[in-house]
Amino acid sequence: MFDAFERGDVMHRIGINRFWPNFPVGIYETKNGWLGVSAVTPKQWREFCELLGLSELRDHPELVSNEGRLQNMDHIDRQLIPRLKTRTAQEWFAEGLKRKLPLVPVPQLSDLLQDAEKVASGAIVRVRLGQEEGRTVGSMQRLTLTPPRPGGQVPSVGEQQLRGGVRTAEQSIPRSLRGCTDGHQLPLQGIRVVDFSMGWAGPLCTRTLADLGADVIKVEAIQYPDWWRGVDRPPGYFEDRMYEKAPCFCMMNRNKRGMTLDLKRPEGLALAKRLLAKADITVGNYSVDVLPKLGLGYDVLRALNPRLVMMSMSAFGSYSVHRDCRAYGSTLEQGSGLPSVVGSAGGLPIMSHIAFGDPVGGLNGCAAVLVALIHARKTGKGQFIDLAQVECMMPFVAPWITVHSIDGMPPPRYGNRHPQHVPHGCFRCAGEDNWIIVAATDAGMWQRLATIIGRPDWAKDRSLNSPEARRAIEDDIETGIEAWTLARNADQAMLELQTVRVAAGAARLPIDMLKDPHLSSRAFLQEVHRAFVGLHPQPSMPIRENATPYPIRTAAPTLGQHNVEILSGLLGLSDTEIEQLATDHIIGTSMLSEVELPHAEHTAN
Fold first, then answer.
1. Which option is the CATH number for 192-395+565-604: 3.30.1120.10, 3.40.50.300, 3.40.50.10540, 3.20.20.150?
2. 363 has a pLDDT exceeding 60
3. pLDDT tens digits, residue range 79-103?
4. pTM, two decimal places
5. Contacts of 15 (CB under 8 A, 6+ apart)
6. InterPro entries recorded for this chain (predicted)?
């Protein structure tokens, strides 16, 4: 959606297990098992080709960028697919670890249940369901001082209601009469966060804190800024400051201050420590050993600031045998087990075609640091949080894991269908690429649906009141629904179905969200002005205290925008000291190009 705002086009789908705007990102069959591949950067593409022995692809000038590879997907896949079948998924994974490539085996549910590491860490736990005992997904958040409560039993159907655990309308908290509109009464005002994260997951975590009022200081380096500023470097990238124009970066880093520090230099490291000594929270999603090797491990920071909450957001966790695995949001989804239950019966494992793991990991991380922050405010003690992002995706697979742990049967895959509801699916409407999602979740809804699509005989047939009975004629039902939807566009079909209380929603393209009436009624989009970008829409935080969204107070910082403000105002450096830091390339406001970088590193040495 971010890129649709900027590009102004519809951005159509590009196929199963193909992931715009990068390629190759998908799931491939191997000699034994399935492999998740995410070769995004030019370096990763070269390494991946070398690993597979495909020098022709590696050296092809049209395939250096993701855009070029997207235009040649079929040609590339014709060479990747047979080559990947020569070794097992585990063998490719081991090679990927050596080369720092985001490759990961796509596990089946049985693999997750038999994973001794996940059982030992609490990612897979025992659970009682009535008289039966099975296993399910535990907590992915390793808070050292505030761990989750172990054990517990799943309530039977209706038991929770009998306990009085369901809030009624009369018990609801009344809406506040006064909104939070001016930025001076935000919930996290006065909390300082030092943000070492990049990409989507970590920056979403810290952006959520910033949206809630925290003073988030994003730390980059002119040598190696946030990679979400752009991984491809087309002509003019540095001269035209294209790294300041990436819409995804602008969305994920609003309401933050930004500074640059070369953490590999003693002067930069010392300043980072001074900054962290004044912080409440720090978040990083580098690979596990990066910050400790720089001298910013939790043992060091705890001595500097005992109340500091530090969170590491790696793919598999700090203590995993796979701790060095490089990962994107796609990698997290591929490694979670979710693709094994998604897709059609008998088909291949399927991804969601978006970096689903990133926002899920980011929001889980935000919840974890807020729990730790509450504890720190009460006790004065910070703590270390080891967030394994691949495990943040596992709750989506929890129902299948639990059932499989009891009956041992591989879970059925339904495609767009549903295990309990019939019909349930996505149906083509009139017009180009126009679709609607329709579901009948009870007998009454089914009867109303059958009536409106012109099948009163189905509505009157009491034998079809159960979803099990309708399952036997599901193909016929879907044909009948699509015959009706093809005669109208998705919005018209949605209105007609919702009018008779049938669950239905038009399948929106990202560009459609700009004019969505529901979002408009909630003032979801706020306009923000930013240097190099101009006026652009930003989505509001979905959490709000009343009808008014939290304000977007500032646009995402340009590179090093607040260097002087932070170094002078917060750390007390003089103008002369700040100028020297800039001369030495420890700070700066312009990204160093590949030509400038070796010279700057030589000067530093």
1. 3.40.50.10540
2. yes
3. 999 999 999 999 999 999 999 999 9
4. 0.90
5. 73
6. CoA-transferase_III_domain, CoA-Trfase_fam_III, CoA-Trfase_III_dom3_sf, CoA-Trfase_III_dom_1_sf
